[in-house]
Amino acid sequence: MLDLARHWAHAYGDRPALVDVDGHRQLSYWDVNQEADTWATLLGDRGVRPGDRVSLLAWNDVRSVTLFLGCLKVGAALVPHNLRLSPPELERQIRDLHPRLVVKGPGAPSSNLPVSEVISLGDAARSVEGPPLGSIPDWERPSLVLFTGGSTGVPKGALLSLRALLFNAWGTVQSWGLGPEDATVLTYPLFHTGGWNVLTLPLLATGGRVYVAQRLDPSALLGALKAWPITVLSAVPAVLGDLVQLPDFPSSTFPKLRWVKSGGGMSPPFVIEAFRQRNVPFYQGYGLTEAGPNLFYSTPEDLDHPFTVGRPALWSILTLRDERGEDCEEGELWVSGPLLFSGYTGDLDGEPPPDPVRGWPTGDILRRDPDGFYYFVGRRKLMYKSGGENVYPSEVELALESHPAIVEAAVVGVPDAKWGEAGIAFYRASHPVSPEEIRTHLRSRLAHFKVPREFIQVPEIPRTPTGKKDYLRLAQNARGGTP
């Protein structure tokens, strides 16, 4: 039987695996396996069997990781839910998933949940230890159900098998050069693919260390980078942007930090430059909940291409296809290979299961240059046509964010009597800047049809519960002038 926690315990023993920042405790790999065994016993006692689902309502917590490993021991799938959702949204998700039980952590909603049994994350510590139930591993049985970002629609529950999780971890370790001396601090929530699959599971697979805090604001993150032996860091652009704008950032040094990677979107030039001035290599990332998400890798030799997402990582089989389905240099990204997901819960939207051989269409447009570097162009669902020409908001946003006053931007297409559609740009600025100055800046970098019709300064760019730009809300409010 494949038991990840037990295998890692025998491989890495007393090495530190998880650091509970809030509880001021450190778990070795032996400790992690022991706690996972306790969870497996508790789950078995509560009737959890292979193929069942266990819903999790918790902010980041090391016990969520050991609960997941306990679920693996009994063959169940863990379903972390987004606590930023409203109670009706959470209740609907749980009702649709039919979990065997719900596990709640501190600060989780206390509303009535549509399940017969709810237990606490603290229950495992009080349970009687015993031999885990055990399960013959099924490589294709879902082990995690993670919801997509929902920036262009309703979040969908992606079924991630043990096969997909392990191949993503293996490919990340090999392609990103991770090793047992590496450590990270968790910046993504554990209800997001980034929380599990960007660095947590890959680092545990190689004997590394993960620091876990329930909440981590930019000041706390900066303190962590200076105080803890963090060697690798990944975070969303908004977090990295807030971090480098802290007054203490320019005087800070990070002697152990080997690299930083932007995930969930492209970071603007001022973020890249801020880390370069600290002698820290900075890479852009790209991925999807359904496909890894670590599809690309970069090396120090790639730093002369600051906006590439890199080259295909190990086990990441990628093709670009045009509207006729033929290979091309700029087109929709199709993913195939062993790190692909198995489908959606409830077959939402009636989509067929992904084909690991023919591939799965991501809905994202990428470009490949002659040297094999890939660049993110935009999401097909967000593309709009202005004067018959395709416009991808991400390209316009990157040009906007190259202006020294603009911290963050989001662009949506709206109906236009003359051009069919035109862009509306929402932006957050560090100091006043006029729309005409922004327009002049863009005209020197973009074709005229890509320059938005209107520029609206806002205090914040609205976000989805997973932290991505909320394009649906922006589009709905574009006519009103504020998001």
What can you see in these coordinates?
With 483 residues, the protein is an alpha/beta fold. The chain folds into three domains: 4-138, Rossmann fold; 183-379, 3-Layer(aba) Sandwich (Rossmann fold); 383-477, GMP Synthetase, Chain A, domain 3. The protein contains 14 helices and 24 strands. The protein has helices spanning 4-12, 29-45, 62-74, 87-97, 123-126, 162-176, 193-198, 200-205, 218-227, 237-244, 269-276, 393-401, 435-443, 471-477; strands spanning 16-20, 25-28, 53-57, 77-80, 101-104, 118-120, 142-147, 157-161, 183-185, 209-212, 232-235, 259-262, 282-284, 296-297, 311-312, 317-321, 330-336, 360-368, 374-379, 384-386, 389-391, 406-416, 420-429, 454-457. Strands 2-1-10-9 form a four-stranded mixed beta sheet. Helix 2 (29-45) crosses helix 3, helix 9 packs across helix 10 (237-244) and helix 10 crosses helix 11. The longest helix has 17 residues, at 29-45. 51% of the residues are buried.
